[in-house]
Amino acid sequence: MKLMLDENTEVELQIEAHKVKNLTIRVLLDGTVKITAPISMPQERIFEFVQSKKNWIVKQQQLQKNRREHAALKNAKGPRIQLLGKTYHAVFKPGAKEGFELNQDDMILTAKDETRIQLVFEKQAKLMLEELLNQKRGKLDLIMDDYRLNHPEIAIKKMKGKWGSCTPAQAKIVMNLMLIHLPVKCIEYVLIHEYMHMICPNHSKRFYELIENVMPDYRRYMKMLKEE
Fold first, then answer.
1. Domains along the chain?
2. Structure confidence by residue, pLDDT tens digits, 142-154
3. Cβ distance 37 to 23 under 8 Å?
4. Rounded-to-integer distance, Cα 150 and Cα 168, Å
């Protein structure tokens, strides 16, 4: 049965009569309020007792809701996804307000439905990659100043067959969105690689010397990228 605690609060009530002396109250996982009452107790007295516990009931129902959501997330863990070199469990959480959250080992993706999970992830991935590239480009822009070159525009998009590209004549670098899955040092190597093409538009010995001046251990990350 349903009981109105006030004009805005309605609860599902479950009453069981037993050979007991006192009333007891519990809020079940689904939010139902369960009452165990003496066999002879009038229903009106039970309703009064429940209404007197309104604040406690509302608090307990919220706690049970949190437990349900936690259990749903735990059971909804999907595939593992690499993000900046760390592995997370992808977790789909239905919700009208789409969003992205990292919680210890879980990547919680909130979307209207499962068909939008990839879009939600890629939107956040682009923002994260943009922030990282902006952090790493400062010292490279100073090198451009030394050569009297324009600071390149950096774009991010999904690419096939290459991690990045550079068009020196247009002062434009394109970085592959899928770099977001790799360790930061690998991403930094690709950025340096493309920046050095602004100075040397080929893969000559001088080109790799320019990279080595900025990242002495670049070969390690170049090898990691070839293995991806």
1. 2-72 (no CATH), 76-116 (no CATH), 137-227 (3.30.2010.10)
2. 999 999 999 999 9
3. yes
4. 9
